Amino acid sequence: MFWGLAATGAYGFAAAKYVTHRVKKPELDKLFLKLHVAAGALLPVAAGIHTVLMFKKKPSPGQILTGLMADAGIVGLMYSHFFSKKLGKKAMPIHRFSTVFTGAGIAAHCIKNATK
Predict the structure, then answer these.
(1) DSSP state of 115
(2) What is the per-residue pLDDT for 51?
(3) Which helix H or strand E contains 90, and what residues bound it?
(4) What is the C-alpha separation between 69 and 66, in angstroms, rounded?
(5) Please, is 98 exposed, middle or buried when counting C-beta atoms within 10 Å of its C-beta (0-12, 13-18, 19+)?
């Protein structure tokens, strides 16, 4: 559970960069860029550990599906980051879509876990 919360927190901090960029406060944007980098590194690690640990607890099919949805979004985030030069202008739309997809997966996963 700790690693799931860590992954969710990392996602929140990383996604907050989108908002701070639009606030037009350079000092805030610079701070959240640093948080975005750190959270972006923590997110796949924490989600991966959470996934491995949770499979030992026999999750329900709904928990598996929603967790894999979040994990697929994280893979999309990593893909758009690591191949950004090769993707060119397509990288940022893929990154944003993957951010929303990951968030939807996390929300569905939390709702599924709260209602089990």
Answers:
(1) T
(2) 95
(3) none
(4) 5
(5) buried
H helix and E strand count, the chain: 5, 0
In the block, residue with structure tokens 């959470």: 50
**Residue (of 74, 90, 87) closest to 15 by Cα position:** 74
pLDDT of 114 reads 87
- Give the pLDDT of residue 72: 98
Is residue 77 within 8 Å of 40, Cβ to Cβ? yes
Low-confidence ranges of the chain (pLDDT < 50): none
Number of alpha carbons in the 13 Å side-chain half-sphere of residue 23: 13
- Strand, helix or coil at 8? helix
Question: Burial of 82 by CB count in 10 Å (0-12 exposed, 13-18 middle, 19+ buried)?
Answer: exposed
Whole-number pLDDT of residue 64 = 94
Packed helices 61-82 and 91-114: angle between N→C axes, nearest 10 degrees? 160
Q: Would you call 1 helix, strand, or coil by DSSP?
A: coil
